[in-house]
Amino acid sequence: MKYLHYPLYCRGGSGFSNLVLSAESGVVAAFLLDRVLVIEGNIAPPANIVQYREHGVTNRHQARITDLMELPVAWVDADDVDYDPGAAFVMGEGDLMNNVFVWPSDRDTQSEDFLHFARGRTRVVTESAESRTAPIVRLFPSSRDGHNTENLGQYSYFFYLDAPTRRVVRALLRGVKPRAPYAELAKRVAGELGQFNAVHIRRGDFKKTFGTTTLDRRPEEAIRVLDQSFGRDEKVVILTDERGDPFFDEITAHFRDSVFVDYHILEHHQKEFFELPLHDSIALAYLSQLIGAEAKDFVGTMTSTYTNLVQRFRGNRGKEERFKFLWNELPNPGEVLKTRGSHPPSDCVPLHPDGSLVEEHEGFYSWNRVSPLLNPAWQREWPESFLWMAGNGDTVSSGLLAEFASRSAEPQPDPTAPRENELTEPNSGAALVEVTVHLVGGVSCRAELASDSEILRDLFQALAAGTPGVLPETPRLLQLPTDGGEKAYSFSSVNLVAVETRPPVLIEEATRVAEVPTQPQPRPQPEKAAEAPKPAVSPEPLSKTEPTGSAATPEPTPAAKPEPAARDRRGAPIVRDISEPTRPAVESPRDFEPLPFVQVTDFLTPDEQSQLLASVLRGESSFARADAETREVSSGFDPAFAERIANRLRLLLPQVLPSFDLLRAVQPADLQLFAHRDGDARNGKDVQAAETDWDEITCTYFFHKESKPLSGGELRLRKGESIHLVEPRNNAVMIFPTSALVEVQPLRCPTKAFEDSRFAVTVRIA
Predict the structure, then answer these.
(1) What is the distance between the alpha carbons of residues 353 and 350, in angstroms, rounded to a whole number?
(2) What angle do CA 164, 167, 173 make, to 5 degrees?
(3) Is the peptide bond before 104 cis (omega within 30 degrees of 0)?
């Protein structure tokens, strides 16, 4: 087991939102380094604790961030591990907010893009031979007093990732979510409030902090900004920790339908709140954030990480988020501050009338374009953090962020003008083209379209926009008319693998649609380049297909030994090589039938599989037959291997089944280890439905000795009226709808030895 020792900001001695930002960076670093995250300072946030004694909130049992939120990596508290943190290999120097974490380590740190990203930062943190082999790694050294106080920063500003890793990391961060009871209550309250706007007006501790203007600001200033975005008759939800401050009297008189959300929860949802696992003021503040993120429009407080998270939550949910603030919180440069919470109001960070930031400069990233007085690491959030934001490779300079930037003072570019790497209209000619759309999992659909059809253009645009199966792309609903327009086949753009056209619709430079040739022509041959790794996932060729109800059990055709799959730096199989400019098409017969399964080969590295097999053979005594089972189940599966397989599935599944939110669903405790021995067979659900249903899936990882003296054990899977006989491959994971399994054929193992069994790790996910 390898560990990443990670002290939270101020070793936990800070506010809730600061600790969330800090923990997120630890989650990503642990994931990239493939280590267990060891959290130092996982305590209840001591800052900004508010008393609600009149409503029975005692703060006697205070929540930690891990009590309220789920982390999608293996983690433990530092107090629960037995090692000396002082013996850790230290990655980086200084503090997080002044460093750039570069991944992979060979990324160009002299490129123009990196210089824009770094914005003057010269310290780089990255993996090395020492960090790969060290049992314990620590991210940044301790400060002089022994406490690391600076592990704070927005992940979007800290991690400089290549395009494939950036997509996977954003998928990972979807798993940093509120625990279900808090998410459900927040959703219920927001739904009952109906449509509303929200404002976060931070008063409380800002009255006692150097460098803020809280004591010098007046309610009319807030009203003037809010009037730019809110209607006076619209409901306004106020996020604050001081409802009793007279400052709010003019605001609630101006916006008569005003709600202080913390008191609204305590007065209208008291029973549900006190039924939560923890119901202190930290939990109440977090609920208020989640509810505020559901607002139609939002204005926040500059330099508040509480506001930052509300803005991020909104952007992640696809809401229009222009990052608006009540006023500038920073003093004029060089100003000597003598009073906490007070300095002469300053316009050193210019804002538009609606509170959005004025862009003063040029640059590839959002933080290049606004006032350099703002610390990009934490004083505000950036659209680059939105989990669906794709970027265009290694730069976001092509205009993808334009709709989120505050450009009201500048002329907007023509949104209809073609940009680099964007598809142009197909040439006229209106020739009929036979189009076959291939989707993740082997599904296809065919239609006839005109060569200048908008639908055909949309299909090619979706292909040019991103890689199939990777969630952070902005999903688009695509529709393909079939049967002469009497039906329509609808699917998400993130599931699109390839578009087959006959006659060929040639694409110039991989993005521009050319005219349909009048005579069949060979496709131009590209310049010879290094051969890309083959993708590890493809619809498996059928070993046998038989009509439903057939009594015969034909011998399966032996499968060719698969070539080793490309792997990422954590050893996980790369499902599709998303760093390549072209994508592999699905190789299949012209009239292939959609298959009810996906099989991914080379799931573990050879070393990992050997270690797992050795561990299983040592634990033979833990296997026994369960009731109604013809296979033996283990009661002693090694937790380390269970965690590794769970993590690998969390990484893999969003790529092959993007409609499932699986990052949190795969837990080590849900995995079961089975041994299939000679004669073992199994009846599945003899489903009579015409089609399989992917609402519940089974993931089974198969492994055995390389020179296996066994045969049989094929899975019989139903798709429509056909039964597909599939042989599980060694070191491969099979993913299929649970309802599709009809039975498992008898396994034949002449030696009858336990060590010659076929082993399987299975998890079901709904």
Answers:
(1) 10
(2) 140
(3) yes
